[in-house]
Write a structure and sequence with these properties.
The complex is a heterodimer of chains A (436) and B (482).
Chain A: H1 3-16, H2 24-37, H3 53-57, H4 69-82, E1 89-94, E2 97-98, E3 111-114, H5 116-125, H6 129-134, H7 136-144, E4 149-153, E5 163-169, E6 176-177, E7 180-185, E8 190-199, E9 206-215, E10 220-228, E11 234-243, E12 248-255, E13 260-269, E14 275-284, E15 289-298, E16 304-313, E17 318-327, E18 334-344, E19 350-359, E20 364-373, H8 377-384, H9 390-406, H10 412-425, H11 429-432
Parallel strand pairs in A: 1-5, 4-7, 5-8, 6-9, 7-9, 8-10, 9-11, 10-12, 11-13, 12-14, 13-15, 14-16, 15-17, 16-18, 17-19, 18-20
Antiparallel strand pairs in A: 1-2, 3-4
Helix pairs in contact in A: 1-2, 2-7, 8-9, 9-10
Chain B: H1 2-13, E1 26-28, H2 35-44, H3 49-63, E2 87-89, H4 104-113, H5 117-124, E3 127-132, E4 135-139, H6 142-147, E5 151-154, H7 155-161, H8 163-169, H9 180-188, E6 193-197, E7 207-212, E8 223-228, E9 233-241, E10 249-251, E11 254-259, E12 264-272, E13 284-294, E14 300-307, E15 312-315, E16 318-321, E17 327-336, E18 341-344, E19 347-350, E20 356-366, E21 370-379, E22 387-397, E23 402-411, E24 417-426, H10 429-437, H11 442-458, H12 463-477
Parallel strand pairs in B: 3-7, 6-8, 7-9, 8-11, 9-12, 10-13, 11-13, 12-14, 13-15, 13-16, 14-17, 15-18, 16-19, 17-20, 18-21, 19-21, 20-22, 21-23, 22-24
Antiparallel strand pairs in B: 1-2, 3-4, 5-6
Classes of the chains: A alpha/beta (436), B alpha/beta (482).
Chain lengths: 436, 482
């Protein structure tokens, strides 16, 4: 998908839209922005460790098309085997297109899922131009996004039941799907969303997701995002959130699958008392490349952020972490903590981590830490001295390393499923899996 | 607080004490840069053919390079054609053999700086190679050093007397094409220091150079090369002050260190160039490339720096840890006040097995200053068992300044262990209150806390430098407290 091919495909797809379509202007602006910027390259500071060439070179189709029976069949098969919680209320997107018969969203009080027209109206309201200019891939998403989904929670509503969003990548002509999700949480409301990405091995699709979040005062939003795509999948995403007074955002990122994965998270703690907590675990083995890029802006006083990422890198895998915390002038009393811990399991594994602090006011408490290493020899010895063989001991310790963070998932069904999936991906699971 | 604010305003108005200009006749090349100027510099210095060619190669490559923009500093673009690339005191032809022959005006300059060269040299046992502008004019203790075979001389002398050594090592640590400023330096470097410590020799004294930028409109392009042969040891001190001036002066130095097997180099810097006035006018642009190469097994290079001056500092003393078991260290205190900007840090490139590095960086930012730590720790696949520990702490004084940390950690070897820690905070009210309660003025209390914050680095400095550094720190932060 070179910029040239994208340009011609875009012209064609724009012509298919109705003249009155609310998305036309925005799409054109976004495309112009992408044309100007092009794909990010390793020359850009934010992309120095991640090369998008495999995506640029791949032959992919970015235009949304209605689902074929084959796609639906494949999705149903995947859903049967992979659901994190079969009973959960959920929304399923197959190659970016909503799957109607899989929606079990019952009438949750106060929650509305809005379609095309309202979503685009909202994208316009959010003045996303700045986003496009900074993130060419978000511009690309806007230019080609399918209908998009707007999840709106009215004021003072506490939704107990987590809402599941399932993204399925099927084996069809290789696609570049551009899903767009908007989440608006009303004042004093509370919601948990579980994002789950699944696909078969050897599917070389590209998902380029953009999620825009607005949280009103005293609201709480939790998103657990679990990515277990097949080993050839490309995945890029941008999550952009604006948090109002005393509201809290909690994000949990777990990446197990995919060939090339890049997650961009940017959170603006825009009003006093706003807080966010981001944690993540990623596994990169066998030629996988997983890149987590987070940016937290403390723009208001008394804002808090907590961040903890753990990377497990195996043979020929590469992990990247970049965590940027910016405390703006006037954001007194900002409190930021960040850690990036990484485990290198074998030869030819690489981790590039860059925890950054940019601080423009004095009354702050900021700290970050980063560690890279292999398993601790003393811990290994301790377990071995209890009669456990070396491979098992290594597996157990690696799992414990990840589980330290996974423990923060508060939905038990999800936590257990995710933990067992992570364990299953670790070396010599068969030796020690029974011990858990 | 009222008595305090009076004291404060007095302190704020305190001018840079080392600001004066010594009027000595100078040999100036007209401003501008082209191949002829490069040739002229080389010719004036009577350089051998290989060096002229080396300079020209650097110049030609420099033309193709762009000035780096990635650092966290802002300044008005430099017009490289308006700089005069060579200045040397007029009476260079009959250079003095001893201090008595040194131009009295020059000695006076040192007096004003509070560094009586002869006394200091005698008392401290330090050999001083004073670089006044671009050409060395006084070198002491040569004989004592010569007895053990240590070569400590100006770069030009080294080119004349030891061309083989220069040719062998020049540009092997910082190649001509390394970066924009290093390329510029390679083309037009004026002078600097050269040190060679022979096999198995422990240098009998600390070697020291005082730099001073003096002539208006002359960039200072120092080139320092230190070679520690097998099993040798040397400690090198570098300190600087500069007279007050309103135009920005460019300083693009290159320092190359080579440590062969079992050798150790300790390089300490106190940098106190003119930082500009309280409105951010004037001050030195300090764009320096410093790099050490631990070429041999068990070698060690240690950088210690106290950076209090310059309007802009752009400096990353680095270590290439090539030899097995080699060690790299970086201890830094960087203080910025008023409109100063500093983007400094280090690079530790681990290539050899069991290489170790330690980075301790303390940044202090006050006024409207910006202070960034930028560091790279890279572990190559060959560096089995490599180890790095990094700690960078920042202290903010006032809510108009900035303190930033940009650490890059790149690890490609699983048996390596890398740890990075950073914290940013202000001086806590509790600490202040505790000191004030015991009768210390706020100013003293802050000085004490700040000195405590920097202690880890100061104790790595040679004694006489540590004292100077502590005093400098207090002076630099005067007026910042409030």
């Amino acid at each position: 998908m070179t910029p040239e091919t994208l340009h011609s495909v875009f012209e064609a797809s724009l012509n298919q839209l109705e003249v009155s379509d609310p998305s036309r202007t925005l799409r054109s602006e976004a495309m112009a922005s992408f044309n100007k910027l092009g794909y990010p390259t390793k020359k850009h500071e934010n992309w120095r460790y991640t090369d998008l060439k495999p995506i640029v070179k791949a032959k992919l189709d970015p235009t949304p098309k209605s689902l074929t029976t084959d796609q639906i069949k494949q999705s149903n098969r995947l859903l049967e085997t992979s659901l994190l919680d079969a009973d959960a209320a959920r929304l399923v997107l197959v190659d970016g297109v909503p799957l109607s018969n899989a929606q079990t969203l019952s009438d949750i009080q106060g929650l509305t899922i809005l379609g095309h027209k309202q979503t685009w109206q909202r994208i316009g309201e959010l003045q996303s131009m700045e986003l496009f200019q900074r993130h060419p891939l978000a511009a690309l998403n806007t230019a080609f996004a399918s209908s998009g989904i707007l999840i709106k929670l009215s004021e003072n509503t506490n939704v107990e039941q987590p809402l599941h969003l399932v993204f399925i990548s099927t084996q069809t002509t290789n696609k570049a799907t551009q899903p767009r999700i908007l989440i608006d949480i009303g004042a004093g409301s509370k919601l948990t969303i579980v994002q789950h990405f699944i696909g078969e091995d050897s599917v070389a699709n590209w998902t380029n997701l953009v999620t825009q979040i607005t949280q009103s005062r005293e609201s709480q939003l939790t998103i657990y995002r679990f990515q277990e795509y097949g080993n050839e999948q490309f995945h890029t995403e941008l999550l952009d959130a604006k948090i109002a007074q005393d509201a809290k955002l909690k994000l949990g990122y777990v990446d197990l699958g995919g060939k090339l994965v890049r997650n961009d998270v940017q959170v603006n703690l825009a009003e006093p008392g706003a807080a966010c907590e981001i944690f993540g675990v990623f596994l990169a083995t066998q030629g996988q490349h997983v890149d987590n890029h987070t940016r937290i802006d403390h723009t208001a006083p008394q804002t808090t952020s907590r961040e903890a990422f753990r990377g497990i890198i195996g043979e020929h895998g590469r992990g990247v972490f970049n965590g940027k915390v910016i405390v703006h002038r006037g954001a007194h009393g900002a409190d930021a903590q960040q850690s990036s811990d990484n485990l290198l399991l074998s030869e030819h594994a690489e981790i590039d981590t860059k925890p950054e602090l940019e601080i423009y006011t004095d009354d702050v408490k900021c700290a970050h830490g980063a560690t890279v290493g292999e398993l601790d020899a003393e811990q290994l010895f301790y377990i071995r001295s209890r009669g456990v063989d070396e491979d098992t001991a290594k597996g157990l310790l690696t799992f414990a390393f990840a589980n330290d963070v996974l423990r923060r998932i508060e939905v038990p069904e999800v936590r257990e499923r995710v933990a067992s999936c992570v364990a299953g991906q670790l070396p010599d699971y068969e030796n020690w899996g029974g011990l858990l | 607080m009222s008595t305090q604010s009076k004291e404060l305003s007095e302190l704020i108005e305190k001018k840079y004490q080392h600001g004066f200009v010594t009027d000595i006749e100078q040999d100036l090349i007209p401003p501008g840069l082209d191949e002829d100027i490069v040739r002229l510099i080389s010719q004036k210095k009577d350089e051998p053919e290989f060096l002229t060619e080396w300079r020209l190669k650097a110049y030609r490559h420099w033309l193709t390079m762009a000035e780096p923009e990635w650092s966290h500093v802002h300044y008005t673009p430099i017009d490289y054609q308006s700089i005069s690339y060579f200045a040397s005191p007029k009476n260079q032809d009959d250079a003095p053999k001893s201090l008595d022959e040194v131009d009295p005006k020059l000695l006076e300059t040192y007096e004003k700086l509070g560094i009586p060269l002869h006394e200091r040299a005698k008392l401290a046992g330090v050999a001083v190679d004073a670089v006044f502008d671009s050409v060395s004019v006084a070198t002491t203790f040569k004989e004592r050093l010569a007895d053990v075979g240590v070569i400590f001389c100006s770069f030009s002398e080294a080119v004349r007397n030891h061309p083989a050594l220069v040719k062998q090592y020049l540009g092997t640590v910082v190649p001509q094409r390394d970066n924009f400023f290093a390329a510029l330096n390679s083309a037009v470097f004026s002078d600097g220091s050269f040190v060679y410590i022979p096999k198995g020799v422990r240098c009998p004294m600390e070697l020291s150079t005082y730099f001073r930028i003096n002539a208006a409109n002359t960039g200072q392009f120092e080139r320092t090369l230190i070679i520690a042969d097998e099993g040798s040891h040397v400690s090198y001190l570098e300190g600087c002050t500069a007279p007050m001036r309103d135009e920005n002066q460019l300083h693009a130095a290159v320092v190359e260190l080579v440590a062969l097997e079992d050798a150790e180099i300790k390089y300490s810097t106190v940098q106190n160039w003119y930082p500009g006035d309280e409105h951010g006018v004037g001050g030195i642009y300090n764009f320096v490339t410093k790099r050490g190469d631990c070429r041999g097994a068990n070698s060690k290079i240690s950088w210690t720096q106290v950076e209090t001056g310059s309007a802009i500092t752009w400096k990353y003393p680095s270590c290439i840890l090539r030899g097995e078991n080699s060690i790299g260290e970086f201890y830094s205190v960087a203080v910025t006040n008023n409109y100063q900007q500093a983007d400094t840090g280090t690079k530790m490139i681990h290539i050899g097995p069991n290489t170790r590095s330690t980075i301790i960086s303390k940044g202090i930012s006050a006024g409207k200053a910006e202070n960034s730590y930028r560091g790279l720790v890279r572990i190559m696949p060959s560096a089995r068992g490599a180890r790095n520990y990094t700690q960078c702490d920042s202290l903010l004084i006032g809510d108009q300044c900035g303190a930033h940390t940009f650490p890059y950690v790149e690890v490609r070897e699983r048996s390596a262990r890398v740890e990075h820690e950073a914290t940013t905070s202000k001086i806590s009210e509790d600490q202040l209150f505790y000191c004030r309660q015991r009768g210390l003025t706020e100013e003293d209390a802050i000085n004490m806390i700040v000195n405590g914050f920097c202690r880890e680095v100061f104790k790595k400095l040679p004694m006489e430098f540590a004292v100077e550094a502590q005093a400098l720190l207090n002076v630099s932060l005067e007026g910042a407290v409030g």
